[in-house]
Fold:
Amino acid sequence: MSDALVHVRDLRKAFGRHRVLRGLNLDIEAGSSVALLGPNGAGKTTLLRILASLSRPTSGTVTIAGVDISANPEGIRQHIGMVSHAPLLYDDLSAEENLQFYARLYGMKEPGERIRELLQRVGLDQRRKDLVRTFSRGMVQRMAIARALLHNPPILLLDEPDTGLDPQAAEMMTDLLRELGGSERTILMTTHHLERGLGLADRILILSSGNLVFDSPAADLGYDDLRPLYDQYVGTGAA
Structure:
């Protein structure tokens, strides 16, 4: 077996007769930052949900840190932080209260210092007592990243974290993700933005119709290289 941190073999997922993932094979090394590109419906979100043990595959195997996710999904979740389209925050709790709630779920003892550190890191320390329902979309996304990082997981899964953000908020999010990518944490991020993916990742994957059709080091690509390749694999104008 590969010594990769994330090891996926012949992964398949179907919803009734609709096949979403079609025998996907993938290894992700510890400390790498991977951008997963592809059009809507390619299977990107489904793959991340399976890796996060939020959805069961139809067949195939996934191991994370040597542990089969189907055998120990609860244990796997300790290794993973996920930011999805739903921020999983409580609107009528403050930023600080939200993180205290999740700290209790993770069994963290005396999380106060960690919470203060994260709120400062995502630029929300001055808003820590404010209710989340008063936050902008960009602030909510930064809060979602703080939630995902709370238990210091070695793997961060980000499902289009910049969706719906205005340019200023998207740039702030990019800076935060670039900072996170400079650590030893392993990041797998889906995005429709080819240029942003190139700027944040050290490896580029393209998923199309449930198949992994392209895999390259980001250093080997420029935008002018990636754009025609992307169009070739998934169709012109798909991103």
